[in-house]
Structure formats: C-alpha cells, structure tokens
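Contributing: when you submit paired examples, paste them exactly as shown. First protein:
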Amino acid sequence: MKRTLLPALLALATTLPLGAQAANEVWDKPVTFQIGAFRADAETNVRLDTNSGNAGTSISFESTLGIARTKTLPDLEFLWRINNRHGVEASYVSLERDGTRTLSGEIRFGEAVFPVNTSVNSTFDSKVLRVAYRYSPINEGGNELAFLLGLHYTQLDTSIVGTLGTVSDSASVDVPLPTIGVRGALRFADNFRVTGFAQALKLKIDQYDGELINAGVGVEWAFLPNAYAGVGYNYYKYELTSTKDRARGQFNFRFDGPTVYAAWAF
C-alpha cells in the first residue's frame, strides 16, 4: 500500500508547481501591504500671481532655482479585497525638495520681487494620497480587470526666501480631485504576472481648475504564498490653475520614474 501511495503523491505534486501555488494564493488574499523605493524624476513649473491678479514670473524650480530633479523616496500601497469582485485600494507618496541659487534674472513670485543676482533658498514639497474603490468583473488566479472610482488628495507647498531674509513669499494648495480609471493584471507564467493601472480627470472645483494623470506598470514575482516582489514605473502629472488667495497662479508638476517593491498579503 505504501509503495503505491508514494508514487501517486509525487505525481500529484509535479502537476501543481510551487510557483503556481504561491501565485494563486498571494494575489487573491484579502489584505495586502506594499512598500517600494521610487526613483522620481521631477519637473516643476510655477507661476505665483499677486493677490490682486498681477501675473508673476513662470519659474522652473529645477533649472532656475536649483532644487534637486531626482530623489529616491518610499512608496506605500494598500489593498483590501472585500470579496472577489469588490475592494478598496490606497497609496501614499511624498516628494520634498529644496535648493539654493543666485538668480540670473528678476523673479516676481506672489507679492515678492527678487532682483537679479539675489541669492535665494527655495522649496517645493508634494504629498499625494490616493484612495479608490475597485470593482473587478474579472478576477481569477492572478488575472484581473478592474474599474476604479477614487480620490486623489494632493498637497503642494512652495516657497522662495532671500538668503538675507528680507524678501520671501510662499503658497500652499490642497486639491481633492476625484478620478476614474482602470486596472489590469495578466499572468504569463506560473508565478509571474504583468500589472498596470491608469487614472485621470479634468475638473473645475471651487477655486481650482485642474487636470490629473496617474499611471503605473509593473512585473511581479510571487515567490511565497504570502509575498511577492516587483519592478515597475510610476507616473504623476498635475496641471492646476488656482484663484485661491495667496496661491493665485499656475502649478504644473510632473514626476515619474522606476520603482522596486515588495508586498505581504494575508
């Protein structure tokens, strides 16, 4: 009896590879936490007008003010699958940069005027919280097609300060933008899949007229029944016009780059 049972068990094990077991389990679990390292390359152009509506100078914070163009930052994501069709996902990323530069031309920034040859310190910080409801008409064994309805809450803070401290101005905008989007995943091997999503919206709300595009792609490897790793690329783009007091003007902000990440599911 033992001699006939052992070959049967071995034959069964070879028909269900370990990789397939890991993939089927990890991508279907109810709760997933993901952390990544995101190498962001940014391009920031701001025009801060006076409160009376006089146009300020359009400024490239990287070229004109010398803030860092690239920076590696943590990227956090979360998924709660309520059931096989419905879920809630969220992500958070924060990019904070500063720089010092002697101006080669005059800059008008809000109520402040910085003459040529003035040495200035500048900052541009962004915080992006994304939350979305996910409906998945297709979701089986790591393959998924889902539709997203969500909200991007973005906080942008910027300032320019003369190094002598006599001239300065700053602006802060907090923009909640609803978004619609789509997400998909396709397994191409027992424990590998390619995944991606895109969300976008153009909307005028209160004192803001904005456009948002957020997308990402990745290749994931399920190496344990409750863990996977991946490499990918993330993209964020904002085009915002504000009529808010002390933040009148235009904020055009884009950051994108490669990311590596790991996730744990249970």
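Second protein:
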Amino acid sequence: MEKERKNYVGYEYKEVTADHRMTALLMDGYESFGWEINGSLPESTAGGRFGSRTKTVLRLKRDRKIVNKAELTRLQRNFEACVSEIETLERRKTSAATDYALILGVIGTAFMAGSVFAVTAQPPHYILSILLAVPAVLGWIMPYFLYRKAAGKQTEKITPLIEAKYDEIYEICEKGNRLLY
C-alpha cells in the first residue's frame, strides 16, 4: 500500500461580516479573487433604526502563493468599496423618508400637547383645544403617507445608482476571475 503525498499549501484567512442579504453576492465575489468559502455562521442580530438585522460571518481562505496576488487584492478592495456603497445607497432609500415622517409625528404630538393644555386650563378653552387637535391627529396619520411617498421617490432616484454599482461589481469580478484562470 503506497500512500500518495499531498503537497503543503499555505493559506491566508479572512473573516467578513455582512448583512444576510449581501451574503450570496459576497460569496460569489470573493471566489472571483481566489478565496474559498471555509464556512459561514450567523452572528447575533444588530439593532437597526426600527428592528434588527441579521449579520453573517463568512470565513474565507486562499492560497498564499496565488498568481497575480497584488492585482487581485486591488480588485478585491474595489469590490469591497462597491459593496459598501451599495449598502449605503440601500439605507439612503428610506432614511430621509423616515426622518420626514418622524418630524411630522413630533409636530403632531406638539399640537396634541397644546390641545391638552388648552382643555385643562382654567377656564377650559374647548374651541382652541379642538382647533389644535385637528392638526395633531393629522400629524399622527400623515407620516405614514409621507413616508411611502418620500421613500418611493428616493427609491426611484437611487435604484439606477445601485444598478450601476452592481454592473461595476460584475466587471471587477470578471477581471478577477480572468486573472485566476
């Protein structure tokens, strides 16, 4: 029985933490730069503005003596910058709309406080209370519609930018893949 000897391969390792929605893109992208997926683990949830987002830790490894390592590393940095820009643009879709809705809700709450103070004053000012309650209720109802409208407009503006970044990522990954093979 003759045993076949394996040649030693030295690896470099990398861990990448990403939003679970970007995991597939990152896995495909890093493979274009010579990285192999060594496993992935869900990480604890990180609190966002209005909920939690699940993060995933990707464990990667790559041969230390890979050909064209310097160029692959440069392309990888460009890839990571594009992914970061996409994540920023995705957040920008709703961040302004959220801010507008919150401001309108706070204004509505201020009108409601004025309405309450008017009705609890001595003597009570019922007419003033009603006049302040109307914009207060509108200030609590309208944020939903304002949010939807503002988010829709922002999404229309940002979607082409995101698509352009995805196209740039595909070109970068294509270049990296050509350097590997």
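If you have annotations for the second protein, write them as plain sentences, like these:
DSSP finds three helices and three strands in the chain.
Residues 68-175 form one domain.
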